[in-house]
Amino acid sequence: MHIFYGKAALIDFLKSIKTTHSTIGFVPTMGALHQGHLALMQKSLSENEHTVVSIFVNPTQFNNPEDLAKYPRTLEEDVKKLTALSPKIILYAPTVEDIYDGQPVSQPFDFDGLENQMEGKFRPGHFNGVGTIVKRLFEIVEPTNAYFGEKDFQQLQIVKKMVAKNNLKVNVVGCPIYRESNNLAMSSRNERLSDHERENAAIIFQTLNIAKEKFKSKSATSVCEWIQKSFKKNAMFTLEYFVIADEATLLPCLRKNKNKKYRAFIAIVVNNIRLIDTISLN
């Protein structure tokens, strides 16, 4: 497997293997790879001539220094997983210096308000960091297709908006959420949970399914109120937000419109670990 730690060498290599009709699939990650990541890569491998995977814990998208410090870094194990999946994968594992040239700061973006909802409210500057790193990675790799999981649905919409506004020639592909046996959405942060916390985190997807059922006959407001009340009785998990929003704008649903697609979003905190999930409601 080809592994690159610097962008100059990666760019030269990609130029050497590109042809007029070849396609490059790209899966950007922060490492601590799990089956959800590998599914994105498998899709890229099946749809493109070449597949590039990046592993980079991006400092500019963390508004909490403790979260950045504790984020799992398992490059050696990740390389083993990638090699087992396919030796054709091209890995880019840069340093902060290589990506940011000594200046790890975000550039400002206008995402037409998508950045002000949900994660944006609780993580100031997060999406400027996401936009900055994804744009830089796209400029380095120049992929034909880029693959993102729908667990981070708001991020997926943000990336699509950034690509459109910057006229980047990248097809952004959203892929289904991969779940553990108890339906907890797969996440690198799950590795920080105790066995007890991980087992009980099944409540997140259970809550989303109850919300989906209730939304068939009740208003978004009443569903949200019910969720908030139910979590007040839960000693283990703190509800950070539960929102029913328009998929396109991410604005909270005030009144149902049969022509719009709605999605429920949830973020909970357990032992200072944030877990998010989402489900389509119609």
Write the layout of secondary structure elements.
Elements lengths: L1 E3 L2 H11 L6 E6 L5 H13 L2 E6 L9 H6 L4 H11 L4 E3 L3 H5 L18 H4 L3 H16 L3 E5 L3 H13 L5 E5 L19 H6 L2 H13 L4 H13 L5 E9 L15 E9 L2 E8 L2
Parallel strand pairs: 1-4, 2-3, 2-5, 3-4, 5-6
Antiparallel strand pairs: 7-8, 8-9
Helix pairs in contact: 7-8, 10-11
Family: Belongs to the pantothenate synthetase family.
Pathway: Cofactor biosynthesis; (R)-pantothenate biosynthesis; (R)-pantothenate from (R)-pantoate and beta-alanine: step 1/1
GO molecular function, one term: pantoate-beta-alanine ligase activity
Task: Sum up the structure in keywords.
alpha/beta; Cyt_trans-like; 282 residues; globular; 3-stranded antiparallel beta sheet; Pantoate_ligase_C; pantoate-beta-alanine ligase activity; EC 6.3.2.1; 6-stranded parallel beta sheet; pantothenate biosynthesis
Describe what you observe in this structure.
- With 282 residues, the protein is α/β, with parallel strands linked by helices.
- It is 39% helix and 19% strand.
- The protein is built from 11 helices and 9 strands.
- A 6-stranded parallel β-sheet has the order 1-4-3-2-5-6, with helices on both faces. It has a 3-stranded antiparallel β-sheet with strand order 7-8-9, covered by helices on one side.
- Strand 5, helix 8 (153-165) and strand 6 (171-175) form a beta-alpha-beta unit.
- Helix 7 (126-141) crosses helix 8 (153-165).
- The termini are far apart.
- The mean pLDDT is 96.
- Beta-alanine binds at residue 61.
- Keywords: ATP-binding, Cytoplasm, Ligase, Nucleotide-binding, Pantothenate biosynthesis.
- It catalyses: (R)-pantoate + beta-alanine + ATP = (R)-pantothenate + AMP + diphosphate + H(+).
